[in-house]
Amino acid sequence: MFRLAPRITRLSFRNITLRDNIITTWSSLTDLKCDLSGWLWVVLDYCPSLTHLTIRRDDASPDFIQGYPYCLLSVVSFSVLNDMIDCYADYDASFADTIGILLDSFTFPHLDTLFLQGESSPNSFRPFRQISEFLERSNCPLTVLALSGHSLTDQELVSILARLPSLQELSLENPPNSDSAICPISTTFVQSLHASKRCDIYDSTKPLLPRLRSSVLRVEKITLILLPSWRVCRLGGYPISPPARRMTWSA
């Protein structure tokens, strides 16, 4: 397959099986979207120019698990999508830690954009340790972060964001059934984004995210948009004219 398309730049595959003796270096590939498979490591070894990596997350098979973090210097964008069945009754806790396995398996020193989509179940895996260790290990200049549906406390979220002084865009979404789940978006968390007011989880007058330009916070049926500068944004047809300390809610 590699020999038939040596100059391909984008590739998406599922359930692929490769033979090592037919693979050659795919030096032009920059954008890869794939599922979890032990073959992923084979493909990555032959893609030296990869910049955008997206993984569809399902049950992590044993051959996928790495014994040490796989370092990719060229990757600037990493996304993990949740492809598990959205059915609480059939929820299998063994699926939940695949996000942790993924984060433990990679190091991206030049990562600019990170998107992590959480579980379909409100009883989802709590990835605080894995996210924190991944960011510390990568030590990357992240400017865009999107976390969707993860069970994190507001204190854990602040601890994660405190590692990201270069962050400019933030998008957060609470887990499903927010009333019964551990949710990162709280009144106290919103207060932590404002340097003018201290709170229990961030006791400092310095901005938590000094370079933040835009923030979107989503809870069930409600979206909160915070814009640090004097800009005009539209949500559901209604204008929002902040500065950052002004909050507009739209159902």
TrEMBL record:
InterPro entries given in the database record: LRR_dom_sf
Native source species: Collybiopsis confluens
UniProt-recorded name of the protein: Uncharacterized protein
Entry superkingdom: Eukaryota
Lineage: Eukaryota, Fungi, Dikarya, Basidiomycota, Agaricomycotina
